[in-house]
Design goal:
By secondary structure, this protein is α+β, with helices and mostly antiparallel strands. It folds into two domains: 95 residues; 122 residues, 2-Layer Sandwich (Alpha-Beta Plaits), CATH 3.30.70.1880. It has four helices and eight strands. Strands 3-2-7-1-8 form a five-stranded antiparallel sheet. The protein has a three-stranded antiparallel sheet with strand order 4-5-6, with helices on one face. Strand 2 and strand 3 form a beta hairpin. The longest helix is centred in the N-terminal third of the chain and has 92 residues. It is rod-shaped, with a radius of gyration of 51 Å.
Length: 229
């Protein structure tokens, strides 16, 4: 009986040790597997974070490029708008006679005829028919405008929409200032169109010439008209 007890005790200790070793091995194995999984998860997260960072960086570059493109388009639109605005300003300044103007056009000369042939059927009706009147100048200006004249002057005086041409007795006044014959009318625009309009049969110059007024018109490649002073 005494021999049996040590054997039982040793058997129990062996079993306990076996169970303990078995549990320890399982714990170690589980720890290794957990460590491997954690390591794999860590690498995966790191890779995902790297790709996410690259994506965000590329996306930001795309947004920056789009913004630069929009800014460039806006700048181009503004430049076009500025250029159009400048052209409009120049156009209105020309119409108002605020700037000197140069370009092709025509130069017209009309003058009283001191040596009129009174035997002419037209001039014999009225001796004043061979004298240039304010209405004649206005008619010529209107024809020039209808032909697209950009700028007009008479004896160096700029003609604009507010210009008054009147007759005081035998004297013509432009904006209250006296001007006399001969009258040199300069006009800037298409020289062919202006010449064609002013030299046509039945036009103002045609009629003035028939009445005995001295007339002349010529095309010029470079006409200079000064601004209003």
């Amino acid at each position: 009986m005494k021999k049996i007890k040590p054997a039982i005790t040793l058997g129990i200790l062996a079993m306990v040790l076996t169970i303990g070793i078995s549990v320890q091995l399982k714990t170690i194995t589980a720890a290794d597997i957990s460590g491997t999984i954690q390591l794999t998860d860590s690498n995966l997260k790191k890779s995902v974070l790297q790709w996410k960072s690259r994506y965000e960086e590329s996306n930001q570059k795309l947004k920056d490029t789009d913004k630069q493109l929009i800014d460039l388009r806006n700048n181009v639109a503004n430049l076009q708008s500025d250029e159009q605005t400048k052209q409009k300003i120049q156009k209105y300044q020309t119409i108002l006679g605020m700037t000197d103007v140069q370009g092709e056009g025509v130069i017209i000369t009309v003058a009283d005829n001191d040596k009129v042939d009174l035997g002419n059927s037209f001039s014999s009706i009225n001796s004043s028919s061979y004298i240039v009147h304010d209405g004649n100048l206005v008619a010529i200006i209107n024809e020039l405008k209808s032909a697209g004249a950009e700028a007009i002057s008479i004896n160096g005086k700029r003609i604009v929409s507010s210009t008054s041409i009147t007759c005081a007795g035998n004297v013509i006044q432009i904006n209250g200032e006296k001007v006399g014959s001969p009258f040199q009318i300069k006009a800037i625009g298409s020289k062919d169109l202006l010449y064609g309009e002013l030299s046509k049969n039945g036009g103002t110059l045609y009629k003035l010439k028939e009445y005995g007024v001295l007339t002349n018109i010529k095309k010029v490649d470079n006409v200079s008209i000064s601004k209003n002073i």
